[in-house]
Amino acid sequence: MLKLLxxxxxxxxxxxxxxxxxxxxxxxxxxRSAELLEPSLRPALxxxxxxxxxxxxxxxxxxxxxxxxxxxxxxxxxxxxxxLDRYRAGQVTAEELTAAIAHEIGHVALGHTRRRLIxxxxxxxxxxxxxxxxxxxxxxxxxxxxxxxxxxxxxxxSRKAEYEADEYAAALLMKAGYGAGxxxxxxxxxxxxxxxxxxxxxxxxxxxxxxxxxxxxxxxxEARWLGSVSGGSAP
Length: 235
Fold this sequence. Notes:
The protein has helices spanning 5-31, 42-51, 81-88, 94-109, 112-137, 142-175, 181-193, 211-230; strands at residues 33-35, 59-62, 69-71, 77-80. The chain is mostly helical. It has one domain. Strands 1-2-4-3 form a four-stranded mixed β-sheet. Mean pLDDT is 81; it is low at 198-205. Keywords: Hydrolase, Metal-binding, Metalloprotease, Protease, Signal, Zinc. Its cofactor is Zn(2+).
């Protein structure tokens, strides 16, 4: 039992760290957000709700200037003030902003937001344990190497979740009568909107797949679904 004590302590520390980080994020969002009450977006959100057989979809406005949308582990959906400002300026259409919300709904519906907390805890514990082992082999560099390796694992899991949320969003948008076009056009705009132009790291370091790969995956889903419809079976 004593031999397992360091490992058990690492797991406990990782759990505490993950829980505290989640609470800090939730507190920040609580303090800087309110319900999104944009009249011009109500029809689009109502169409999404109808496609999901829901009475309404509640979205929160996070008061920060960056362009982003996110989902919390408790199921809440957020759109940033910067994103809404781009919509009001005509740089983003109502359908494209709705596509971003549909993507975040996908993260919630597919369990990504809750699993992210569990994954974060496990990755922290694994990084600590691997750091101890590698630290004995490569003093000084072992913990850094462990963090880098676990970062690669986290990035890979994140990219997989993004592909899955894209697929969910595309299906939801098609059911709502928009088609997947708004999601694809939004993805093409995001780099410029968020200021992420120029050279990027290799794909295996990114937490989100590259735009071209995401659009290609969405179009593959479209072709499969439309082929199923034309063949007489449900998509």
